[in-house]
Amino acid sequence: MARTAGSHSQTTGPRVHDAALKLFARHGFAAVSMRQIAAEVGVQAGALYNYTPDKQTLLLDLMRGHMDALLAERAQRGKHGGPLERLEEFTRFHIRFHLERPDAVFVSYMELRNLSPENFETIEALRRRYEDELEGILRDGVAAGLFAVADSKIATLAVIAMLTGVTTWYRPAGRLSVNEVETIYWDMVRKAVAA
Amino acid sequence: MARTAGSHSQTTGPRVHDAALKLFARHGFAAVSMRQIAAEVGVQAGALYNYTPDKQTLLLDLMRGHMDALLAERAQRGKHGGPLERLEEFTRFHIRFHLERPDAVFVSYMELRNLSPENFETIEALRRRYEDELEGILRDGVAAGLFAVADSKIATLAVIAMLTGVTTWYRPAGRLSVNEVETIYWDMVRKAVAA
DNA sequence: GTCTATATATGGATAGAC
DNA sequence: GTCTATCCATATATAGAC
User: Fold this and answer.
1) φ and ψ at B106, to 5 degrees?
2) What pLDDT is attached to residue B79?
3) What's A42's domain CATH number?
4) Which residues in chain B are contacts of A169 at CB distance < 8 A?
5) Relative to the CA of B68, which of A49, A51, A161, B7 has its CA 20 to 30 Å away?
6) Any CB–CB contact under 8 A between A192 and chain B?
7) Same domain as B144, residue B177
8) How many domains does one find in chain A?
9) Does the beta-carbon distance from B165 to A158 stay under 8 Å?
10) What is the CATH number of the domain that holds A109?
11) Do A2 and A71 lie in a common domain?
12) Tell me, in Å, how far CA of A66 is from C1' of C17?
């Protein structure tokens, strides 16, 4: 059975990424030293530079990996059904995807200002592509008379902000399953954009 | 005319706070040095320690100042009207208050993990007091049959996340006035919790 | 109250041995 | 590929002169 790189790979490269993601999420990019990352991996600091040219590139790789995974999963999903069905699917997907990788979400939203200007633009472009899919759903729904929003771009950002906020309070050990949380948020999203 | 401390005070103490708030918002607490703050104020680094015992306390003071101002303004507002009127007033207040102080909002939401555990609890307690007011409005509305939310606590956090998200995209030079933005968000909030 | 100077620690990154 | 050792820059915070 072939082994692909992933969270539990035993090779050093992915372990560097995993350790950096965990520590950046907990303490912030600027507050984490390369020595701390190395200690988490179980190597000395110098060894990290076999896997990244510098700390900035390590951050970029983490954020780009997250955005690539997000867009790749969206691309696999069918675009079947009317606006209402597509909006529900998007809502449930967004919550589930984000709750499954809290560290990557945290880093991707909090560390944008620690990207170099060039790297920032790279990530922003990916984020806009994701937002554009939701905006397209809302526009289609408005055109079909199913939805009513004053401004599709603002509604897009409002919905995404509401949904992403789930990551600030959800704990797997809590009283609600992910599916129950999805249903609660879907009820609010559905009504918020309803005609 | 008496002069009170504020954003444009000419005394060093408030200028240290203003400079720190601006730089922490732009670059992050951990990425900003005391020397940078001092340069922004126009003094040498050592002089800052006449106004704060250390960098951590400076962060706490900024965040506590923001939360105190938020709660003080809420306390001044009348609690008149039914749940629908109170929800609209809360929604419009939240957007306006947050858009008026983008740096303080940014720091207060992004730098929680850079607070010491003890200071974190101080700020969290203030934040919960603010959330509790909105939750009370939603509960009252549900009891009156005006609102329908599956879980008042989750609805509270969802609404606040949606509203606070406005700070990530709003620019004063843009096409919409604050009042127009308030109206757009109020339309979505009203529908999201409607019975 | 602000300055200069400094104690002390830690940061990112690199060189060269193994 | 990882180690040890180190370069060099910068960090927080303090001491004492003015």
Assistant:
1) -60, -50
2) 83
3) 1.10.10.60
4) 154, 157
5) A161
6) yes
7) yes
8) 2
9) yes
10) 1.10.357.10
11) no
12) 38
Q: Are residues A76 and A162 in the same domain?
A: yes
Question: A71 and A41 in one domain?
Answer: no
Inter-chain CB proximity B165 and A161 less than 8 Å: yes
Q: Is B28 on the interface with A (CB under 8 A)?
A: yes
List strand residue ranges (DSSP E) for B131-182, in order: none
Percent of chain B with pLDDT over 90: 93
Tell me, yes or no, if B142 comes closer than 8 A to chain A by beta carbon.
Answer: no
Q: Is the dihedral of CA B166, B169, B172, B177 positive or negative?
A: negative
Are both B45 and B78 inside the same structural domain? no
The pTM assigned to this predicted structure is: 0.95
A158: nearest Cα among A183, A179, A188: A188
One-letter amino acid of B69: A
Which nucleotides of chain D have an atom under 7 angstroms from any protein CB? 1-5, 10-16
Same domain, B91 and B106: yes
Are A22 and A103 spatial neighbours (Cβ–Cβ below 8 Å)? yes
Q: Determine the structural domain holding residue A103 and report its residue range.
A: 54-192
pLDDT at A2 over 90: no
Residues contacting residue A188 through CB under 8 Å, at least 6 positions apart: A162, B149, B155, B158, B192, B193
Q: Which amino acid is at B154?
A: I
- A62-113 confidence digits (pLDDT tens): 999 999 999 999 999 868 999 999 999 999 999 999 999 999 999 999 999 9
Cβ of A33 < 7 Å from strand D?
Answer: no
Residues A76 and A172 in one domain: yes
Is B1 domain-assigned? no
